[in-house]
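To illustrate the input format used throughout this study, we show a single complete record. The first block contains the structure-token representation of the backbone; no residue identities are included at this stage. The design step must infer an amino acid for every position from geometry alone.
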């Protein structure tokens, strides 16, 4: 129990971080752990510093995978997802507008 307490204090750094920063760390950790392993690996290369950075990285990763799937299978056309590409309101009330995606990952990282 003592080791777990010390590891948690090292990770959360309660003496150096604000309550909001600690909450962000815990939320980010739980969010990343809920993602598929392939996406977790891809996010490891981006090193997001905030929840907004994390969400942006997930959106870019998803867009990259969709793009690569379209390139590999040109006959399969999907309609675009409506949440990030049209600027609609998300479940938490934030309006996200995304006009373009950068491709931060190398193509070899996404191959099985």
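Output of the design step:
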């Amino acid at each position: 129990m003592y080791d777990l307490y010390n590891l948690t204090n090292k990770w959360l750094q309660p003496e150096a971080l604000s309550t909001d920063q600690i909450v962000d760390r815990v939320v980010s950790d739980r969010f990343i752990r809920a993602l598929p392993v392939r996406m977790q690996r891809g996010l490891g290369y981006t090193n997001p510093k905030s929840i907004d950075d994390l969400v942006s990285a997930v959106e870019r990763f998803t867009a990259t995978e969709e793009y690569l799937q379209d390139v590999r299978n040109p006959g399969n056309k999907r309609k675009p997802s409506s949440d990030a590409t049209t600027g609609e309101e998300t479940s938490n009330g934030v309006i996200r507008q995304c006009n373009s995606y950068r491709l931060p990952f190398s193509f070899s990282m996404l191959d099985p």
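Structural context for interpreting the output: Residues 16-110 form one domain. The chain is about 60% helix and 0% strand.
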